[in-house]
Amino acid sequence: SQFLHGEQGALLVASQLCSCAPTFNAKLYAASQTFDEARHVEVFNQYIQKRIGLMYPINTHLNSIIDKILTDPRWDLKFIGMQIVIEGLALSAFNTTRETTPDPVLKDIVYLVTRDEARHVTFGVNYLEEYVKTLSDEEREERALFAFEACAISRERLVATDVFRHFGWDVEESRKKVLDGFVMSTFRNLLFQRVVPNLRRIGLLTDRIRPRFEELGILEYEAMTDDGDIDWAKLERSLDTSEAQSHEQSMLAAFHEAFEKNQAASA
User: Fold this and answer.
1) What is the pLDDT of residues 96-118, one digit of tens each?
2) What b/e readout covers 31-48, taking b as 16+ CB neighbours within 10 angstroms?
3) What is the pTM of this model?
4) Which candidate, 148, 147, 153, places its Cα nearest to that of 78?
5) Alpha-carbon separation of residue 138 from 17, 44, 68, 130 (angstroms)
């Protein structure tokens, strides 16, 4: 359900950028992304209706991020919020899902959606990298704080408190178990491995904001590879299912190896 709500939010923000983005090329890209997000909304909606039959309301933390992005009049904060934070969040969640779900249909869905999201993030990184250089120090710090706050909220994003309530579980106890669990730890690592290097590349990991990222324990990811470069030729090729399956198997092997190490360390 949260995948669907996140894609709905991305659809709304992308459609706003069609009118408020400052250049013709940015408007064109926002238009193409709007179409991508509409397809994503449709596929997750169909999956929920036909495969699950139960939909939960939007997560409180996800709702607060999307509302902030939608209501802020500044186009660049919409860009930062969507292309860097929300899309980075989506990529991390989709990769975690591919590693953990037993459903082959959902595996295929998130694999295909991820191909689109990777393009969105790369465009955002490249476009913002040049734009942030034109900002004053005060404006840059304001954007850096916004990105930090969105990251802090994102740590809570996939804690399914509505599911806990639905089954009558103790919400706080269940929440703590999830946050301390291996899957959520993997998700947070994947999230900040993408978002923090991208913030560094576009110039929003400022000296003033760095200590706050360090307090969250995620500054260690800044030296990792960012999403500013992409293999366009690879994305333009027809989908190779054998390549996808091979990639999936390598991801699963790495995930299970890390899980076994975690279990051994906890024993």
Assistant:
1) 788 888 899 999 999 999 888 88
2) eebbebbbebbebbeebb
3) 0.78
4) 147
5) 24, 40, 20, 17
CATH number at residue 133: 1.20.1260
Q: Which amino acid is at 78?
A: K
The answer to whether residue 222 is domain-embedded is: yes
What is the distance between the alpha carbons of residues 118 and 106, in angstroms, rounded to a whole number?
18
Chain centroid to Cα 214, Å, comes to: 20
Residue for token pair 């919020």: 81
Task: Quote the CA–CA distance of 154 and 158 in Å, as a whole number.
Answer: 8
Phi-psi region for residue 151, left (φ > 0), alpha (ψ -120 to 50) or beta? alpha
30 located within any domain: yes
Count of residues for the chain? Answer: 267
Tell me the residue range of the domain where 195 lies.
Answer: 2-105+120-231
Say if 129 falls within a structural domain: yes
Number of structural domains found in the chain: 1
How far is C-alpha 137 from the chain's CA centre? 27
Closest CA to 80 of 63, 64, 65: 65
Q: What is the pLDDT of residues 120-163, one digit of tens each?
A: 888 888 889 999 999 999 999 999 999 998 888 776 665 777 77
Q: The tokens 């491995």 sit on which residue?
A: 193
